[in-house]
Design goal:
The protein is built from 15 helices and 24 strands. With 469 residues, the chain is of the alpha/beta class. The chain folds into 2 domains: 2-243 and 443-464, Aldehyde Dehydrogenase, Chain A, domain 1 (3-Layer(aba) Sandwich); 248-433, Aldehyde Dehydrogenase, Chain A, domain 2 (3-Layer(aba) Sandwich). The strands form 7 sheets. It has a 7-stranded mixed sheet with strand order 14-17-18-13-12-20-21, sandwiched between helices. The chain is globular and about 80 Å long.
């Protein structure tokens, strides 16, 4: 754990292991209920300092943190790859994004403004007034294993930009990069009480934090089930929830099939499919379905999987044994629902092979639920309406994609698909860190991206002057 600007040793520990070969990376102190009390006390002091820091100073801290991460890029990338199992190239890409996210957070600190209010709309008035945005207080950031650095930056950066203090509860399997981020922030000039990192199980430590009355805001990325549990236990707090998905792609017959197959190769199998906006469902117009399947099978069949630290590895392991078991279950269920296995469908040690399923019933788990695995199901459609209905036929709605050269079809899909983002001629796994990112239905509440997150970590404070006679 990380507290008061330094790592803390504890009698009880958590061992962080490499998901590829199960080797021990590091042993960290496990936080307990007493540490929560200490972290809250420190965060209270941190908030009293940060809320009074000039916006320019908070921006400078975040900008300097961005430089520190950039200068230690390979150190961060090696840790991310080892603790999460993503390939070293994927890890370096995450570090680059984290550098940018902290820069964007710095800009968000400078761009936080208010607005004047008119009081003469109903008649003459001597009143003048305005509102400005003020920080909420203590922000709890709960982050997942798959982007342990950049998703932490997406929560912590805007929180500090707004003048809040932060308690960070990283995923138990990937806490090291979160501690490294906290160290970088303190090195950059953040008051040591401004951030604490508590390490421990979400079911105990995490839920105790969620229930803390002094925490004013929770920003969580994870599963729908845990998101619902948090909202049922957090009380009167603001929440941002970035939850699950089973992102869909619609491929019309006029789409460039080879290009789409290449994009699905990347969008469906990056980080072994363990990405919230990973492609899981593909709906192909019937006239080109066979041709598309040939193209996709060639692309996916070329994916090189194995040791994530090797430069030429394209796909690494699943995060743990339960994730592997879930992937196997989804494939067995798909076959029981009349699906045809084209590629993969099994594990090799800690890796689940890149998998393609064809003609799966819309009632199968792989269609209805989130697999979070390197599994893509391909089904056919005949009409635009049928494709849209199938995309919308789940409880999720994070991002979806449409490939077509027909602007009428593209706009209809964009308007009628119920998702937080609809991408035309780009895969749904695409994300840049300055865009508003979030979902509808079971995929979440609120939006991330520093410019948007900072608004959810502040509140309007109204000030009115009346001119005395």
């Amino acid at each position: 754990m990380f507290f008061n600007g330094k790592r803390i040793k504890k009698i009880k520990t958590i061992t962080v292991k490499n998901p590829y070969n199960k080797s021990v990376i590091e042993t960290l102190g496990q936080s307990d209920a007493g540490d929560i009390t200490k972290a809250i006390d420190a965060a209270r002091i941190g908030f009293s300092i940060l809320k009074n820091l000039p916006a320019g100073k908070r921006a400078d801290i975040l900008e300097q943190c961005s430089r520190i991460i950039h200068n230690k890029k390979e150190d961060f990338a090696q840790v991310i790859s080892k603790e999460s199992g993503k390939t070293i190239k994927e890890a370096r890409g995450e570090v680059d994004r984290a550098v940018n996210t902290m820069k964007l957070s710095s800009l968000a600190a400078l761009g936080l403004t208010g607005k004047t209010i008119r009081f003469d709309l109903g008649g003459p008035s001597n009143k003048v007034g305005f509102y400005h945005r003020v920080p909420l207080g203590i922000v709890l950031a709960i982050t997942p294993f798959n982007f342990p650095l950049n998703l932490s930056c997406h929560k912590i950066g805007p929180a500090i930009a707004a003048g809040n203090s932060v308690i960070h509860k990283p995923a138990t399997k990937t806490p090291i990069s979160g501690i490294m981020l906290a160290q970088a922030l303190v090195e950059a000039g953040l008051p040591k009480q401004g951030i604490s990192v508590l390490v421990g199980p979400g079911s105990t430590l995490g839920m105790d934090l969620v229930r803390c009355t002094e925490i004013r805001k929770i920003s969580f990325t994870g599963s729908l089930e845990v998101g619902e549990l948090i909202t049922n236990n957090c009380g009167m707090k603001r929440v941002t929830m970035e939850l699950g998905s089973n992102s869909a792609v619609i491929v019309f017959k006029d789409a460039p099939l080879k290009l789409v197959a290449k994009k699905i190769r990347k969008g469906g199998y990056t980080l072994a499919g363990q990405v919230c906006i990973s492609i899981q469902r593909v709906y192909v117009e019937e006239a080109v379905a066979d041709e598309f399947m040939r193209e996709l099978s060639v692309e996916v069949g070329q994916i090189k999987y194995g040791d994530p630290l090797l430069e030429d590895t394209e796909m690494g392991p699943m995060i743990d044994e339960p994730a592997l078991n879930k992937a196997e279950q989804f494939c067995k269920d798909a076959l029981a629902h009349k699906g045809i296995l084209i590629l993969g469908g099994r594990r090799e040690n800690t890796i689940f092979l890149p998998t393609i399923l064809l003609n799966v019933s819309e009632e199968a788990l792989v269609i209805k639920e989130e697999a979070f695995a390197p599994i893509v199901a391909v089904n056919r459609f005949k009409t635009v309406e049928e494709a849209i209905n199938k995309v919308n036929g789940t409880k999720y709605g994070l991002q979806a994609a449409v490939f077509t050269q027909n602007i009428t079809k593209a706009l209809k899909c964009a308007q009628d698909i119920n998702a937080g983002g609809v991408l035309i001629n780009e895969f749904p796994t695409y994300r840049v860190d300055n865009m508003p990112y979030g979902g509808t239905k079971g995929s979440g509440i609120g939006r991330e991206g520093p410019e948007f997150a900072i608004k959810e970590m502040t509140e309007e404070k109204l000030i009115i002057f009346d001119q005395l006679p």
